[in-house]
Each structure stands twice: as structure tokens, then as C-alpha cells.
Amino acid sequence: MGYSRFLLKRASQGVVVIWGVVTVVFTLRYITPGSPVTFIAPLDASQALREEIAMEYGLNRPLYVQYIEYVVGLLPPNIDMGQSFAAGTSVSSQVFAALPRSLELAVAATLVAVALSIPLGVISATNRHEPTDYAATTFSLVGISTPNFWLGLMLTLLLAVQFDIFPTGGMARVNGTPLLLVDALRYLLSGRPQVMLRWLSHITLPAVTLGTYFTALVTRLTRSGMLDELGKQYITALRAKGTPETLVRFRHALKNTLVPIVTVLGLQLGTLIGGAVITERVFAWPGLGSLLIDAINARQWVILQGCLVVVGAGFVIVNTVVDAIYAYLNPEVTV
Questions:
Q1: How far is CA 17 from the centre of its chain?
Q2: Considering the chain, what is the average pLDDT of its residues?
Q3: Long-range contact list for 127-135, CB < 8 A, 24+ apart?
Q4: Is 1.10.3720.10 the CATH number for 101-334?
């Protein structure tokens, strides 16, 4: 199977999985106890008012009609997820406003993890049974064992409250508008570096908190992969030829170790996009996690449904991209 056919096959499978996610989420909406009308209508609403509300939001139509309309509405370029029952605003606008914030936090956490874990894993593997190896292994154990919410609170108390180095939470804002990286870069290029510094100060603690477990996981994975590669015959042959040790470690051993690491990076990135609920809550980060919790507390199933669909679709897309990178690094998987 060629590379193009492999990508087409993975993309087709991804579409089927996304359709399955939409179907499951839509079904859960109707098997969950309670009717949306109950949450919209006043406590003393009459039966006539309840029927009028159900008719207004299309809740009185057959289930298969609502399902078809919902699926068709999700198709590009419209991507209509319905209207919020309480506020009457578009669910799509709320979800897609929160998505870049969660994505930015997830990518920042991934970069923190990669920048720390791969060098630590290489150092640990090349200094086996030495103090540096034990230090890196201990760090991995502590990182995996530390709950994110506790780490976030401790970092806030120490670095934000005690020493006042970082803000306690929230996104950086300019004129009340949340500041994304692209906005910060634009201000930097226009001669306002203080805005970029403000963005960095706000994202550092959430990214470190979210990326710590990830760092520990990839460190252990890099170490085990490097140890396996360094014990193979081609490494012995390279050393016998007089190849510099730096090239042996980084150009050959680490390169062959990256294939499983890329897979884990992709899986974790997909998880971080929708799984940063606790971190976003601790740092008052207005992303998908916070929107999800607010929707649950307010029993806004339409918003909850939109969040779950976007998280599921994002996970599928990330994994499809990972499969493409994996096949590029290791063409044997396309055979």
C-alpha cells in the first residue's frame, strides 16, 4: 500500500469514528434523565408553555429527524451545533472561542514536556546506573505520581502568592480580550514586547502543571527506547568505525527511538486538548475544560454535547496526523 492510499484509508476511518462519536453523544442526550424543557421553563410553567418551548427548539419532533438535522448541521462549512437554551447564543461560537485557548495550553504543555523529557531521557540512558540516571528516574517517578491539581495549587502558592513571580491565574488580556500567542506575536512585531512577556507569564504555570505528568512519561519512554537502541549491533558497528559518540546517540539511536515517542506525543496531545479540565479550573483558564464544567453545572446539554463532539473530533484528527508522521518515519507500516 502506497503512502497516499494509507493516508486516504486513515482519513476514511477517522470520518467513521467521528460519526460514531456524534451518534453516541447525541444518544446520551436522550437517555440521560430529565428533559431540556424542564431546565428552560420556569418552575411554575404550564403544560402549554412547556409544549411551546419544545416546539420552539424542535424538541417535539421525532428523534431520527432531530438526529439527521444535527448531523447535517455539523457538516462544513456551517458547523452548526445548535443554540444554547439558557442564553440563546450559538453553541458553535462558544465552543470555537474556547477551543484555541485549550489548544494553545495543550501545545505549550507538550513543548514543555518535549524540551525537558527527551534530553533527560537521553542523559539517563547514556549514564545508566549513575547519579544522573537515578536523578532522572526519580524525577519521572515523582512527576507521574503527582496529581495535577495539587501541583497547580502548590506552584500558585509558591510562585504566584509567595514570591509574586507569576499571576495566580487567568489568561493574559488586552482591553479585556483574551490574548492568544498569535496576538502576542503581533504585538511583539509592532514593538510592544511587554505584551509577549505578559502572555508568557500567564501561560507558564498552567503549561508546567499540565506538562509535568507528560514530561515524566516521555522521559521514561525515551530512556527505555535509547537503552534498547544503544544495545543493538548497528550501534556497535558505528562505534567500531569511529563515528563520534554524539552522532551515534542523537543521529542514529535517538532517531530510531522517536517513532514510538511521536505516537505517544500525538495521543497525549489529543488527550490534553479535552483533558485539561482540572488544570483549567485551577488556573481559571477559559478553555474547553472550563466551558465543559460550566455546562455540566448549568445542565446545558447542548453546550456539553458540542464540547464532546469537538474533543472527539480533535482526538481523531490528531491521531490521523500522528499516523501520517509515523508512516513517514517508518514506511513499513504502509505495507
A1: 18
A2: 84
A3: 128/227
A4: yes
Per-residue model confidence as pLDDT tens digits over 206-232? 999 988 888 888 888 899 989 998 888
Can you tell me which residue has the cell 502568592? 161
3-state helix, strand, coil in the chain (%, to 5): 75, 0, 20
The ranges assigned to domains in the chain are 3-74, 101-334
* CB-CB contact of 201 with 172 (8 Å): yes
Interaxial angle between packed helices 91-126 and 131-145, expressed in degrees from 0 to 180 and rounded to the nearest 10: 160
pTM: 0.84
CA 163/CA 150 separation, integer angstroms: 18
Nearest to 299 by CA among 125, 10, 86: 86
Query: Cβ of 180: how many Cβ atoms within 10 Å?
Result: 17
Cα(162)–Cα(168) distance, integer angstroms: 11
How far apart are alpha carbons 64 and 30 in whole angstroms? 12
